[in-house]
Amino acid sequence: MDKFRMIFQFLQSNQESFMNGICGIMALASAQMYSAFDFNCPCLPSYNLAYGMGILFVPPLVLFLLGFVMNNNVSMLAEEWKRPTGMRQKDPAVLRYMFCSMAQRAMIAPAVWISVTLLDGKCFMCAFSTSVPVEKLGNGSYTGLSEKEMKRILARIPCKEIYSGQELVAREVAVRYLRCISQALGWSFVLLMTMLAFLVRALRPCFTQAAFLKSKYWSHYIDIERKLFDETCTEHAKSFAKVCIQQFFETMNKDMAMGHTHSPEKAPSEVGEEKEKLLGITDQGTMNRILKSWHKCKPPLYLHQEALQNGNGWAGENEHHNDISPPKREMVTYYSKV
Amino acid sequence: MDRFRMIFQYFQSNSESVMNGICGLLALASVKMYTSFDFNCPCLPKYNMVYGVGIMFLPPMALFLCGLILNRQSLVMLEEWKRPTGGRKKDLAIIRYMCFSIMQRAMIAPVVWIIVTLLDGKCFICAFSSSIDPEKFVGFANITPTQIQLLLSKVPCKDDELMKNHTARKAISRYLRCWSQALGWSILLFLIVVAFLARSLRPCFNQAAFLQTRYWSNYIDIEQKIFEETCCEHARDFAHKCILHFFESMQQEIKLRRFNAPREAEEGEAEEDHLRGITDQEQMNKLLKSWYYSKPPLDVSQATQRQPMDRERPSVPWADSLSNRGNTPQTAKSSRQTDV
């Protein structure tokens, strides 16, 4: 379990590693989807090609876009691209790096789908069964058939039960032929992809490695900065909410104390701590009033300064919420001329 | 188990992750429901379409409503929408943002159901087998239209005697299935393109306002949670005090009745006395009966002040009878209206 925890933490450590994990999962899901998908060739002349090509290319497109959608860096890239320059210059090399790394990862699942489809062969067979060279494989001199009729017969090659053209061309021959070509294409595709990946990786350091290292660093930096900013905002919201609610209870207590003429103001010191935990609410009517007030009249988003200075360490900072505007101003300490 | 705990903790880390987790679970449940559902086409002329379309659209609606119900944020959003303005103005942008985010998450499981249904094909075949053009297929010549309709409606049922050995049955099935899968993939592609555009073009439009809206909607969620936690803690302490008070009052009563046994009173009080002076069956029975027949009033102000017990106080019913004790002036807060 320790190993698993380590892997989990490593994958979570930054967005790139996380995306590597997602990428692997999607590749596996792609293979699984293919095997679960019930391929169903229509065996009709004009439909075969459309169906076959559709199954070969539409799911990869879906997987490619899904790879982008699941990557949080997409919105980060768009944000970085569109932001006003402000006090921090923009570096197009960083944007290019981000985009390339996202695109590379998103391409893996589609490549897996296409390879698996071609290596399996059903799809290719369905799409190109009408293009089988009858002269080479079968009885080319089988006359008496119009072009359309021949196409109709050939279109049924993928469907074993209804194939009626055994005299024209034997079904097993055609199937083997088509499958052979499909697998050859599949393996060539796999080889091509692997070669490309190898070249990109091996030749990368030959071209402007220093600039590349810079781009990689600053793109990680932007990712981490954004995550930290979101975490800081969440922490701030928590503290803000706690103080706001505390002040709400105090205000309600004060208001109610003004209305009570007979309730004693001073409590014995030894029950001070317990009274504090009860926030001064000691009976049903008071609690009901507080709950009603919480709904009917929520407190304003304004924290009293004196309570803050006695409490946590936000003293001195301006708590007006309309000054809590997004970010770049507060991050001026991270300024650098990349 | 450690693994699950870690995954659980990761998803619990913030409210959005919880929602994502629930969303994923609903999607998986949707797929599982579909595979375990025993699809059973009626194979009758008018019923096919109704059944097929019903199976395609009713479960998604149920899943959508489920997704809305299970999402805590929908209650938060409704509350924010419906609350009186009071001391805090309402910002419609926040409500819109929350609404969108809830809808997006709730739509995933229905969409998964519809796509799995289309990719599988049974439903589509059942619904549309009577609507195809019989000219395209062999075996339908010289038959009356009503007979054709009857035959076509039996296409989805493999074991039906009328259509079992019909030449066109498989061809029609394949044809419809091809259309069903093409439709399924097209819908999936369309939705993914929309999701991609929405995600990548989001920062191009009014990003600053978006960040503000996101912060404040997160704030409202957190505030609600912390308020509930505060109320829970308060209720716990309140209950603790109330019960202590009750036991003490019972103890007093027992002491008053036991003139001949004053010796235990001083000894037991020095240490942590969980027995609270109740040391035999009869006393305990009396206490339990009293707890049922005459619960103490919801008022521990005397307990915290340690004043002498006033047992003549009438028990207070649950209704808000103490609210007339001092109408809290709401005007004190209304002068501080700020924007959210």
UniProtKB/TrEMBL annotation, chain A:
InterPro entries registered for this protein in UniProt: CALHM (IPR029569)
GO biological process: ATP export
TM segment ranges: 21-37, 49-69, 184-203
Main location: membrane
Stretch forming the signal peptide: none
Name of this protein: Calcium homeostasis modulator 1
Highest rank taxon of the organism: Eukaryota
Protein transport recorded as keyword: no
Record's keyword annotation contains Transmembrane helix: yes
Pfam families: Ca_hom_mod
Topological type in the membrane: Multi-pass membrane protein
GO cellular component labels: plasma membrane
UniProtKB keywords: Ion channel, Ion transport, Membrane, Transmembrane, Transmembrane helix, Transport
Family (UniProt): Belongs to the CALHM family.
GO molecular function: monoatomic cation channel activity
Compartments where found: Membrane
Organism: Pelusios castaneus (West African mud turtle)
From TrEMBL, chain B:
Regions of compositional bias (Polar residues) in chain numbering: 321-340
Region listing for Disordered, in residue ranges: 299-340
UniProt record, GO biological process: ATP export
InterPro entries: CALHM (IPR029569)
Sorted UniProt keywords: Ion channel, Ion transport, Membrane, Transmembrane, Transmembrane helix, Transport
An annotated GO cellular component: plasma membrane
First and last residue of the signal peptide: none
GO MF: monoatomic cation channel activity
Family label: Belongs to the CALHM family.
Protein's recorded name: Calcium homeostasis modulator 3
